[in-house]
Amino acid sequence: MTTKRPLAIFFSIVVLMASAVFVFSGPKTQMRFATTWTPSEGEGLYLEKTIDALNQDSNGKYLWTYESAAGHEHETAMRIQLAADNMPDVYTFWPGQAIITAFKEGGAMLDMDKYLKDSKQVSAKNWNQEENNFYRYWNDGIYVLPIEAFHGFFNVNKSILDRYGIKPPTTFAELVAAGKVLRSNGIIPIDTGSKGANPGHLMLSEITYQFKGAMQDVRNIKSTGTAKTEAILKGWRVVEQMRKENLFPDDTIASGDWDAAGALYNQGKAAMEMCYPWMIQRIPQDILANTVIIPFPKIDGTAYARGEVIMGGISHGLCINPKSYSNPAKKAGTIAMADILTSDAFTKMIVKMGATPARLIKLAEGDATPFYRNMLAVKTNAKYVVPPTDFMLPGTVGWEAYMQAVDGLFAGEPADQMLDVLQKGVVRGLSQ
Question: Is 98 in the same domain as 165?
Fold first, then answer.
C-alpha cells in the first residue's frame, strides 16, 4: 500500500486546521504527546509531521514533544511516569479496566466527556454510544476515548460454496449441514483455531454475546467474581458443538495464533473464516475477489438478530492529563491535539493504513475499497459492539486461565470443564 499521497493530503489538511487554531507570538508552552505509534510509518509518521509543523509555526503557542514506545514498553513508560507524577499532556492508551484503573485512580485520566463537550470539532454523537458505554466502567465517565478499533466479520469464499452447491448459511443448522458437505470434499469449513486463545477467543466472545444476559454477565465478571453463568456457558457450548461437528481445523493449536490465522482460508483450503481488519492484507486477490462478508449464522436460542451484536474492541484510545486540562496555559493545547487525533483527516488516515476507525465516519467512493467498506458496514449496522471477554478479566492470572480454557475448548475439551478453569483463574486473579 502506498502511503505517501494520503499522508501528503491529510497532512496538509491538518496543518491548515492547526494554523487556524494557533495564532500566537511569544514564548511557547512546553507540551508532551506519548503514544505507541512509532514515527517510522503510518499513523506515527503522520502525527510526527503534524507536530513538527505545529512546532515550526511562528504563530504557534505550544512546543510539542513526540514520545513513542511500542506495545508494552509504552505501558511501562506510562506507569513509571505515573509514579513520578510526570504524565504527558495527551497520550494514547488501551481501554481495558484492569490496565487503566491505576491511571484513573492516580488522577492521570480526564473524563473525556468533558473534552467532547468543549471540542468545537467533535461530540459524543460521532461515536457509537452503545459501544462506548462498555468502557464506562465506573458509571461516571469514559476515560479512554476510542480512536482506532477492530471488530470481527465472517468471510465466506463464495466460489468454494458454489462449487458444491452450498448457499451461504443463515442458520446454525445450515452451517452444520454445509460443514458436512465441505468435509466430505476435503475442505475445512471454518478456519479458526486457538493458540494462546488467539484468534479463537474473539469468535467465542461474539458467539457468547448472542445469548440473553451474556453481555452483562461478562461485563460484571470482576464485580461478581463469576465467569461461569448460564448465559456464558451457552456460548461456550456452541463452540464445543462446532468442534464436535468438525467445523474447525483438525489441529486448532497449529491453526491458532496470529501468524497462522487465516492461512488455510488464504490457500483455498477452507471455505469460511472469522476475520479481523489486520488479516485483510494477507488475503490473496483471487481469494478476496470471491469473498463475501455475511452475518454469522443465527444460533438457536439466541436473543438477537444476525449482525445485531458483534465483538469489537479498541486498539488505540485517546487520554488527556486532567492536570493539563485544568491548567489555563495548557487547556487549549490539549483540546487542539485531541482534535487532531479525532479529526476526519486522521480518521481517514487510519482507514488508509488498513485499520478500523473507532469514530463514525462516512467514506467517499475513493476513500476505501468496496471490501473494506463492506467490512466497516458490519460495525455501522450493528446495534451492540461489545469488547472481547479478556478486556473484562482480572489481570494476568485471569488472562492466563482464559488462554488455557479457550485453547482446550477449541481442541475438544468439554465447555463445562474449560469454563471451570476460567472461573478458578478469575477467583485467583481477584484475590491478588
Answer: no
